[in-house]
Design goal:
This protein is mostly helical and about 160 residues long. The chain has 7 helices and 2 strands, in the order H-H-H-H-H-E-E-H-H. Helix 2 crosses helix 6 and helix 4 packs across helix 5.
């Protein structure tokens, strides 16, 4: 059954404080805290490690622009610039300017960045495994589909005002 906006407004919740938005917010916060704690020994934040992991995954493809990665990391252009600045200062990434046009920037992992991405991956995998403990493969597949749909809806919030 697909719910329309009126049905969602009337949808029962377990408790007045447990709307879907509230639960998603709490899950995201708790996952981020767990990642931050575990990654702190590598001297890197969850967002920095996420960028390194994305760049490692795209290593054989065309070098991505900061704009292409920003949405995947939940940040905007200014936040992405600050993130790249911090990682460049740590020697984790290198910024390349294409053809003298500062708008045509790509980023690439250094050897240090590649090592960090490799070290961080088991942490992300462990947190993901713990998060999905007790779920069947079918439930994980269904949850993944629903979360993608929630993300799509969340990204369109405010567009209809």
């Amino acid at each position: 059954m697909v719910r329309n906006a009126e049905q969602v407004d009337r949808a029962p919740t377990a408790d007045e404080g447990e709307s879907i938005a509230t639960l998603v917010f709490h899950v995201a916060r708790d996952v981020r805290v767990a990642l931050e704690r575990q990654l702190s020994s590598h001297g890197i934040t969850a967002q920095q490690a996420s960028l390194a992991r994305l760049l490692r995954a795209w290593e054989r493809k065309k070098k991505p622009s900061p704009f292409q990665i920003a949405a995947r990391l939940g940040t905007d252009g200014a936040g992405m610039t600050r993130l790249i600045d911090r990682l460049e200062a740590k020697g984790v990434v290198v910024r390349h300017v294409g053809g003298g046009d500062r708008r045509l920037i790509t980023i690439e992992l250094t050897d240090t960045g590649m090592a960090i991405a490799k070290k961080a991956s088991p942490t992300f995998q462990s947190v993901n495994r713990q998060l999905l403990e007790g779920f069947t493969d079918h439930e994980v597949e269904h949850l993944t589909d629903m979360l993608h749909r929630l993300l799509k809806n969340a990204r369109s919030l405010g567009e209809h005002d």
